[in-house]
Fold this sequence. Notes:
single chain, mainly beta, 5-stranded mixed β-sheet, 51 strands, elongated, disordered N terminus
Amino acid sequence: MARLSAVLNLLVTVLLVAALFGCVTSDSPTPDEAERLDRWLQGGPEESRDAAATVPERDATPPQRVTLESLQTDEEPLHTVSDLPRPEYFSFELPDVAYVSVAVQSEAGAAISLIDRSVGAFAQAGRAGDFDGRIDTLLDKGEYRVRVQIVHEDDEATVNVREFTDVQADTGLLMNSAPGTLHESTLQDYEQRSYWVRVTEDEPLIVEAMGRALRAVRVWKDGVWVTSRPAQVSEYSPVTGRRMGYAQLSEQLEPGNYLLTFYGGAAREWEEESVGNPFYVRRGAQYLGSVIDAQTEISPMGRDAFLVSGDVTVLEIENPDFIPVRLGVASYGPGQDRYRAISTIFLDRSGESTRSRGTVSRSSSMRWIFVAGTPGDTVRIRAIPQRTEYEIDKPTPGSRYLISTVSTLDSDHAIDATPIIVRNGTRTSRDEVIRSEALAVTDTPLVREINLFQPLFFIVDLDRSGRWAIVHDRPDDSPVAIGMIPFRELHDIVTPHVVTDNPESFDVQAGQHMVLFQPHTPGVFRFALYYRGSASAPNDRRAADLLTRAAPVPRGDITYVTSPNEIMADRDHMVLANNRGGPATALFVQRLPLSLEEEVPLTLAPGRALSIPVSPAAPGVISTGYSSIEIRLGGRLLNSGQVVPAGRSTITVTNTGSSTTTFVLRLDPIFVASFRAPAIPAIEET
Length: 686
């Protein structure tokens, strides 16, 4: 007969020899006793013979989590009437609820089934003669039996029952750190870590965790296991050959405090030898708004998610080292997987560009964006809401506005931003351009080299009347449609004619004009706009020389504040940004004083200072992300982390650097670590 013993671990450190609970004796049972025993032992389904299968926990009402106080068994051989190798049965009793591991150890391999009186066999693991079984599960208090199946009667097996130990000392850690903060620790086999989180009507339960030994997650409230949508533990490899357990929770639960418990198990095998069992967890996510220009280092989890405004429509990712990386967009909402992309942008070594761009439609709610790659790699993310028109409907008298443009990462090879403000006409007057940020062209020609991927237009201010010419050069000699239209003829714009001469000449008056380019095929386009002379002047020999000059860096995006009299109170106005030939552009028009509830994109040339009236509803910490940008409040320099008070004031933003800088001014809420972790409540019995 097989020698079989059960070993129980009391409070993780004390091992007790388990035996039968006194249900049978060495003598044959009476008929009544045998009938009751058979009903209990045979009341459940047979264990699975699938070597890879482990039946999940039963779908009964979830039990509660308490400390295991004692386990008692009596050791007696089971009565058998079979000549074949038969299962052995052992019993143990739990006085309270516990998350335990029930495992068998043998040389030949043994299967186990866990049985209780109400549902019979509800979990099985292992295969006799192949591999040993182990069941990690949450058990209610009561009496349980372990059925052990071996191959040969002389096989020897040992059953271990072990409670998990909570190793998280600071259960308020997640609540006392800013949303999106990653916490790193370890999670070993037979260990669990518990954290408090708070759910409100405006802040759902958003948590993700990853660990080599992570096997299960439970959510508790007031001592009750919450099972509306149990978190599943999947697998993800942030590094090739290193499988990790991964779990994410995204639930709109009833407001209140919840306790999350993460349970360890057998560590997953890695291709490289390592004794470490890392564990990572973070609550919530950083909100980036609608204008994003961020350098981010990929975390040890191998992917990181952020919340953005639903207005974001254009996303770009850049890495000068051609490191493979993926940028994705996912829907946001209860139960939504933050890494289930509805749109994905890939950047890898197969292309010639160090950046990649994608577009999505607008959404009425926030979205997830995530970046996935090799931990430790750094990438740049740019995202904007593409928009080139903004209507100002009959503003109040004296209204002033901050107007800014923001473009995607390839704006260094695009035409300059030249937004205009148009005052809408009436029955007796036509639309009127009241302001434009035109490019001034004088004796110095305007020379640019751009990536012309789509039609573009821009505004120039010519300093004299006469014949002006545009000379251009394209490597493939493909035709380009070119036009030059005075502002007074904006209502009569027609499709530009196809150039047949190079240079192409226009007889125009001094003043502001719209220049239009429409490529036949996309590609690099180099041009020069210069004064050629009178209508009777011969072709200028300077044309070819102009194209050999080094093209200056374009002015790029622009920011300015309107004057009090530019925007009339009784008229509608339209702000228009120009199409720039390649990059996407976002036009922002914000009324002063700024509430700072939304991010404020600004572009400042070196040495330029801009005074901005602000009126935040609540105090916050103002930041730009650039050390060269200086911010003063009432003449006082604001250092990193200093607070801007609520109420009306004026800030002055100065670019102290040596190059034009586009950045985002944002007011982050003040985070105070004030959560006091309550005591873990007494668990009610189900």
